[in-house]
Write a structure and sequence with these properties.
By secondary structure, the chain is of the alpha+beta class. The protein is built from 15 helices and 8 strands. The two termini are about 35 Å apart. It catalyses: Hydrolysis of alkylated DNA, releasing 3-methyladenine, 3-methylguanine, 7-methylguanine and 7-methyladenine.
Length: about 300
């Protein structure tokens, strides 16, 4: 991580293949998002570090990311470094996108997208519990309803801070949800299965049998197997979590409905492509399937405006 600590704010020096404006478009795509707020020039997010809530504003100018601290105790240099590390991971700044753009330049599907959205990075979910819950919530329902369920969940169990008429929320921890009854989640319109999956995962994480650190030490095949051994986590959910939380650029949620829609639109197909057809399109994406999927997702926002 390349960063400068000015004590009252910090700056990140991202790689050249980074565009804050493109990332901001993605962050601002959902009207019902409850975990951050975007404006034309900034994203605001509430973090919980060492049991203290800290509100940050992230902006960018002259290829530098600036993090301002709007609320909370940031007197500790370790806390400021932790915030910088969070934002660095949030924007996936450790990935060498030069390699992805080389792959994209050779591919008829990705070439145009790579030029259109140059500098866009996968917007990650550094918190494993959040990534798993969000992926499970999104199973077999439309995205709008998934955001509605997430909003109810966060506002029921998460911590909040209000400033200048805006309320900011923190995703509940596994420890908080481990003691929640399935019936309580059912009252939020969670299906019985999803409520069971989420409370089960919360219990695993609260007791320490499932940790991000352990998963990060595994190779991709072992990691995928470990994730799909968790009740409620199938192949799509595992690949999504590997892509959005564990920084695996070759993770490939091939069954994703949004991916199918994007390919249908980009290729002018009369119907959505089959899995076999997608596999043939993706031959050139080897090692960068996650970024190919992410850029195709991004193209959907242009397709339906």
């Amino acid at each position: 991580m390349n960063w400068i600590d000015y004590e009252t704010y910090v700056e990140l020096l991202p790689p050249p293949e980074f565009c804050f404006e493109e990332c901001l478009v993605f962050l601002g795509r959902a009207d019902h998002e409850v975990l951050h707020r975007t404006t034309e020039e900034a994203v605001y997010k509430l973090l919980n570090l060492n049991k203290s809530n800290i509100l940050i504003r992230v902006t960018s100018a002259d290829k530098v990311i600036r993090i301002d601290f709007l609320h909370g105790d940031i007197s500790s240099a370790a806390t400021r470094e932790e915030i910088a590390a969070f934002v660095w991971e949030w924007f996936d700044l450790d990935q060498d996108l030069a390699a992805f753009y080389y792959v994209a330049e050779q591919d008829p599907i990705l070439q145009k997208l790579a030029h259109s959205y140059f500098g866009l990075r996968i917007i990650c979910m550094p918190d494993l519990f959040e990534a798993l819950v969000w992926a499970i919530l999104g199973q077999q329902i439309n995205l709008t309803f998934a955001y509605t369920l997430k909003k109810r969940f966060v506002e029921q169990y998460g911590e909040s801070f209000s400033d200048s008429g805006e309320t900011y929320w923190i995703f509940p921890s596994a420890e908080q949800i481990a003691s929640v009854e399935v019936a309580e989640l059912r009252e939020l319109q969670f299906s019985a299965r999803k409520a069971e999956y989420i409370t089960g995962i919360a219990e695993m994480m609260a007791e320490g049998s499932l940790t991000k650190e352990t998963l990060q030490g595994m190779d991709q095949h072992e990691l995928h197997k470990e994730l799909t051994n968790i009740r409620g986590v199938g192949a799509w959910t595992a690949d999504y979590v590997m892509m959005k939380c564990l920084h695996i650029p070759s993770a490939f949620p091939i069954a994703d409905v949004g991916l199918h829609q994007a390919l249908q639109h980009q290729l002018g197909l009369e119907q959505k492509p089959s899995i076999e057809e997608i596999q043939s399109y993706a031959v050139n994406w080897e090692g960068w399937q996650a970024y190919a999927v992410f850029y195709l997702w991004r193209s959907l926002y242009d397709s339906f405006v």
